[in-house]
């Protein structure tokens, strides 16, 4: 059943002289010899249709083999009054070839979309890192504009997570003074950073 497809058939095979409808009926009943005859008669035509659509010889060979296997498996579904065996085989071959092209295109589209997502993700990450770095630079510059007590209080509260009371204890400064210095320092930071309320 998995015979190589004969591509260079210069003369009509003996099978071409048989009545393909009768052969197909025998194939439908599992007759392997009849399938071999059918294969010899149709494989070159099937390959010719497939290669015109798929355009890649190796893939066309695979698709043509799949079509011939379909003919074996679906032989019982063949309806002589719907058209000739050749037309039926040609229709299956064309559909299979188109499916392969669409599948290959979908895979290519997925790969391109994935590459675009990876590129965008990488760009977004770099962009975010640059933005964060620029913001950090601006915060450091603005912190340098505060008084020493304001800078220490803000750093302890916002970078180390201390409460106002813990900042007051760490700096050995009265709590009301720390609150005032932090409020004034945060206002100056806001203005320096250009944050609007």
UniProtKB/TrEMBL annotation:
UniProt key word Transferase: no
Keyword match Transcription: yes
Signal peptide: none
UniProt xrefs under CDD domains: Sigma70_r4 (cd06171)
InterPro entries assigned to the protein according to its UniProt record, in alphabetical order: RNA_pol_sigma-70-like (IPR039425), RNA_pol_sigma-70_dom (IPR014284), RNA_pol_sigma70_r2 (IPR007627), RNA_pol_sigma70_r4_t2 (IPR013249), RNA_pol_sigma_r2 (IPR013325), RNA_pol_sigma_r3/r4-like (IPR013324), WH-like_DNA-bd_sf (IPR036388)
Record family assignment: Belongs to the sigma-70 factor family. ECF subfamily.
Protein name: ECF RNA polymerase sigma factor SigK
Annotated organism of origin: Streptomyces rochei (Streptomyces parvullus)
Encoding gene (name): sigK
